[in-house]
Design goal:
The protein is α+β, with helices and mostly antiparallel strands. The chain has helices at 2-8, 29-36, 66-76, 103-115, 141-149; strands at residues 12-15, 20-22, 50-52, 57-60, 119-123, 129-133, 200-206, 227-230, 247-249, 258-259, 263-265.
Length: 273
């Protein structure tokens, strides 16, 4: 089963330990309200903008697909997403991102993948693939944002200006999920795909205010509380597809708009980022 399962795994992209800008600057909040609706206080959770340097990590180029999650369900006996209307996804949906998965279920899938002892294909900065074993997990929201917007704090993965050709959002009129990687022009500076639109993605992080600190308890897996989601989805307008946009739900909630992507740690805790 190992080879068949590895064939369903996404490639991973290395995100280096470099300083990047996270969140939205205080003076920008009024402009966000003007551009996307609401009041400046609606965007307060994204402030202050601050700079971070994280440990290096690798993130999947695309979200977890129905095909990969289907292999997990078949082998583990985990409940199938309600959207499948059966124990396996429809064949025409195999390359679409899985939805109807709670945070708890996403974490359970990660733990199951870890137990399989799989080899992951990690792409280095020059695009060369390296085989690596590891423990897949959900990215933190800081990791997710760094992978989505790069170092310069851009509004969308591809730049400052929204383009419906770059993401599956309400503006494109599709009204449903699209195959992963279907919007290559929407790639992030690191070449990560689907980080705007298509499906909301669970992160590991608890809903806590900024500035982000990895050591303040927000990354504790056993802690109760709502978990942050990122990226927006096919049903949302463009404002939700911004790299800095934050949303949250209780970890037991499932819905037809939310999936997840995998990450891998590349440095041991305690080393210098």
């Amino acid at each position: 089963m190992g080879d068949q399962l590895e064939a369903l795994l996404p490639a991973f992209v290395v995100i280096p330990a470099v300083r990047f800008a996270m969140g939205s600057a205080e003076p920008e909040l009024s402009a966000l309200a003007r551009d996307y609706g609401g009041t400046r206080e609606s965007y307060r959770e994204e402030a202050p903008r601050h700079e971070l340097t994280l440990f290096p990590f690798a993130i999947a180029r695309v979200p977890v697909t129905n095909a990969l999650y289907g292999a997990y369900v078949a082998a583990s006996g985990a409940p199938a997403p309600l959207a499948w209307r059966g124990l396996q996804p429809p064949p025409e949906q195999h390359d679409h991102p899985v939805v109807d998965v709670s945070w708890d279920e996403a974490c359970a899938c990660c733990r199951w993948l870890e137990r399989q002892g799989l080899v992951y294909r990690v792409l280095t900065a020059d695009g060369s693939p390296v085989a690596r074993r590891g423990a897949p997990r959900l990215p933190s929201e800081a990791e997710w944002e760094h992978a989505a917007r790069g170092r310069d704090g851009r509004r969308f993965p591809w730049g400052e200006t929204f383009a419906s050709s770059c993401a599956n959002t309400r503006e494109g009129g599709r009204g449903r999920t699209s195959p992963v990687g279907a919007y290559p022009q929407g790639a992030s500076p690191y070449g990560v795909l689907d980080m705007a639109g298509n499906v909301w993605e669970w992160t590991a992080s608890l809903d806590r205010p900024y500035p982000y600190r990895a050591d303040d308890g927000r990354e504790l897996a056993a802690a109760p509380g709502r978990r942050i989601m990122r990226g927006g989805c096919y049903a949302n307008p463009q404002g939700y597809a911004r790299c800095a946009c934050r949303f949250r739900l209780p970890p037991t909630v499932r819905n037809e708009f939310t999936g997840f992507r995998l990450a891998l740690s590349l440095a041991a805790e305690g080393s210098n980022p």
